[in-house]
Amino acid sequence: MQATEQIWLKKIECPLCYESFTTENIWQNKVVVLEEYPDLGKRYSGTNPLYYSVWVCPSCLYADFRGDEYFNTLKIVDEDFEEDYSIFKMVAEDADYKQPRTIDLAIKSYKLAILTGKHKRVSNARLGTFNLRLAWLYRSIKKTDQEEKYLRYTLDYYLQAYQGEDSPDFGNLSDGGITYLLGELYRRCGDLKTAVNFFQKVANDKELNAEPKYIKMARFQWESLKDNPNAQSDDKEEEQEGKE
Fold this sequence. Notes:
With 244 residues, this protein is mainly alpha-helical. It has a domain at 1-122. It is built from nine helices and six strands, in the order ββββββααααααααα. Strands 1-2 form a two-stranded antiparallel sheet. Strands 3-4 form a two-stranded antiparallel sheet. Strands 5-6 form a two-stranded antiparallel ribbon. The longest helix has 21 residues, at 144-164. It is globular. The model is unreliable at 237-244 (pLDDT under 50).
């Protein structure tokens, strides 16, 4: 590893095994976004910052989001963490996290973070975010089947957080933002009726106080599904049958 114009290095200590190691980080002001996708993923010019969002201890493979508030927070670790270490090694294969990040190392870092997160009993919202970013990484290399797989996992975790957690941590997403994103995830997973319900909520529910960005995106996606029979509500289907 070495620092570059876009990469800076930081020495940290693993909170699990106490080994010190050096990890790469990206200067955010050097990131160039070319396009934002409807599910809020981005296409970048040059270095992809997603490669560096997860820190991984090269010694024990403990992994979590970069930053002390995530990586160094170790309130709970299941007793079977060490027993499951063989699973961590199987996921990591021969990955060497002392080397510069590649797409392969980035993908494995998120999978290790998911495993670690389950042992740390992190929120469903955080597990969902790991899966969402993993889906975006697979999209960047056009692995559609894997992208769809992890988008479905994301939807499942986000729904559990949205419906069952008090004040779930969706990062920078407001209530309007996560409601829109759930609609988009439903759309991408093929449940168009439910997607429309979420888009309508963002566009029409004043109590959400959604940002104009999400209202515009929700209306656009809602409009795009207007004539799709698979997106019609049951009431509309019955009404159409009555007309016939």
